[in-house]
Amino acid sequence: MSNGHILLRKSSELHGTIELTGAKNAVLVIIASLILANGKSILENVPNSADVQQMIALLTDLGAQVYFDRENNRLEVDTSTIDRFEVKQEIMNKMRASILVMGPLLARFGRAKVALPGGCLIGARPINYHLLGFKKMGVLLEEAGAFLNAVLSSHHSMQNHNRIILEYPSVGATENLMMFATLVPGETYIINAALEPEVLDLVDVLRKMGAKIEICDGMIIRIKGVDKLNPINHSVIPDRLEAGALLLAACITQGEIHLPTARADHMDIFLEKLREMGHEVTTGTNPASDLGYNMHQGIKLKATKFPKAVSFKTGPYPGFPTDLQAPTMATLCIADGVSTVEETVFENRMMHGQELQKMGAQITIDRTHATIRGVEMLYGAEVIATDIRASCALVLAGLVAVSQTKITGIHHWRRGYEKLERKIKLLGGNIEIFDEE
Ligand code: EPZ
Fold first, then answer.
1. 239 alpha carbon, distance to own chain's centre
2. Cβ neighbours for 277, distance < 8 A, ≥ 6 positions apart
3. Which of 29, 75, 384, 392 has the fewest other C-beta atoms within 10 Å?
4. How far is the C-alpha of 248 from the C-alpha of 253, rounded, in Å?
5. What is the DSSP track for 82-110?
6. Radius of gyration, CA atoms only, the chain
7. Angle, CA of 231, 236 and 237, to the nearest 5°
8. d(CA 121, ligand 1 centre) in Å
9. Distances 274 to 135, 265, 269, 281, 309 between C-alpha atoms, Å
10. Closest residue (by CA) to atom 16 of ligand 1?
11. What is the signed CA dihedral for 27, 31, 33, 34, rounded to 10 degrees?
């Protein structure tokens, strides 16, 4: 736990053009998926964040050879030397996304031993959907103390048709089960699957490896098992959550920003809400884009001086992303009128509300519902970040608060972003980050 902190002072309007880094929630699962492809893969546009470091440490611990060219955000991973299938407790406890190696390990070795992931602050975040799916696909699970032993039963190859119904379109469960299914004989259908852009970037990677994956109507993913998958080269999609944070930084300081690499087609609902607030948002602003116009690469925003209150509720893609709920709430604290926010994905993801209240925000929280009454100004305070996205919300509020804001708990900030404070500073933000005292 780093006891560093971030200091912020009131900033003038943020202005400028910023390149985005690769999406954290795509690259973590893509690194895990490389276990499936025996050999050396290359990933481009990999953010140098603490979570990526953690996933690299996990694969190295399993025996992979990894070289991370941080300067160029380029990662080389050779998984041919992986010879272990146990994820150590201290590694699991550091990052919940470690569970995403379970599917690849089962597919490659027929075995996996993982410590049960600690729930983190934003909810219990169990893995029951993952485990139910593995069981349906012939995996025998047995709890041994804090560990879970998973073994592919010998008769599984007889089942050449698996239908996995997800009670909730869980991102992690969809990814874990899909990766496992790529090497399981027969056909697997994942029904009520998550189709976030990060999940589709993983599908892109698995198909490059040689997997047979089809996205069917009605949120169904159909996977036809193959015998072998091969190493790949891939450039990770830009991070829509970093894009959201930067757009909101321009909104809250009434500035102007251009994100030429942002994929507007990954953020439709969120961009509509910015327009509803009164901000001028144009997309497809990147003439150099080789993605074809319909991908709307490039986002330009000119903030309004009189932002209006808006209401929204989070939900699975393409709904409003839960990871932009906290930063958007911060922006609504100084909008004109009353906003209501409902968090439907996690049961305890409103803790940033009480931190914003310390800064003078008029917010009432009732479990997963928040009502925000816009105020003229916010005041600097000492506040604590409770998760990655809460740290972003507090940074945004600190950019407009009339006096200094000090944020602790910044290991969250480092987990989720690669030097986002540097980008905010480049745009004119008064932000300083201090490491451990
Ligand atoms: C991924 O988490 C992201 N993390 C999260 O981003 C993101 O908020 C979330 O998807 C939703 O979009 C990564 O991709 C590494 P879920 P994940 O499984 O896969 C419940 C960030 O800030 N659930 O879709 O864990 C769960 O408790 C992070 O970057 C079960 O009950 O999310 C939650 O309430 C935060 N049982 C809901 O489903 C299960 O087996 C959604 O979880 C799995 C999930």
1. 8
2. 251, 304, 307, 308, 309, 310, 331, 335
3. 384
4. 8
5. ----EE-HHHHHH-GGGGGGHHHHHHHHS
6. 22
7. 145
8. 12
9. 43, 15, 9, 8, 10
10. 170
11. 140
Atom of ligand 1 lying closest to residue 347 CA = 34
Structure tokens at 43: 């990933």
Tokens 């803790």 -> residue: 351
Strands 280-283 and 297-302, by their bridges, are antiparallel
Q: Do domains 5-21+238-434 and 24-235 have the same CATH topology?
A: yes
**Cα separation, 267 vs 272, whole angstroms:** 9
Going by CA atoms, what residue is nearest to atom 26 of ligand 1?
125
Lowest mean pLDDT among 92-96, 158-162, 360-364: 158-162
What pLDDT does residue 119 have? 46
Is 120 noted as a catalytic residue in this protein?
yes
Question: Ligand 1: which atom is nearest the Cα of residue 322?
Answer: 8
Hey, what CATH topology would domain 5-21+238-434 get? UDP-n-acetylglucosamine1-carboxyvinyl-transferase; Chain (3.65.10)
CA 271 to ligand 1 center in whole angstroms:
22
Q: Is the pLDDT of residue 157 over 80?
A: no
- Pocket flag, ligand 1, residue 173 (CB < 6 Å): yes
**Do residues 346 and 122 make contact, with C-beta atoms less than 8 angstroms apart?**
yes
Helix (H) or strand (E) holding 414: helix 411-416
Task: Name the catalytic one among 120, 216, 333, 392.
Answer: 120
pLDDT in tens, 87-142: 988 888 889 899 999 999 999 999 999 987 654 445 556 899 999 999 999 999 99
pLDDT tens by residue, 267-315 = 999 999 999 999 999 999 887 776 655 567 999 999 999 999 999 999 9
Distance between CA atoms of residues 175 and 232, nearest Å:
18
Residues 217, 426: Cα–Cα separation, whole Å: 43
Q: Which superfamily, per CATH, for 24-235?
A: Enolpyruvate transferase domain (3.65.10.10)
Domain definitions of the chain by residue range: 5-21+238-434, 24-235
Percent of the chain topping pLDDT 90: 86
Residue in the block written with tokens 């969120």: 270
Helix (H) or strand (E) holding 181: helix 171-181
Q: Which residue has the tokens 């550091």?
A: 94
Q: Which residues contact 50 (CB under 8 A, 6 or more apart)?
A: 411, 414, 415
The β-bridge relationship of strands 15-17 and 256-263 is parallel
Whole-model pTM over 0.90: yes
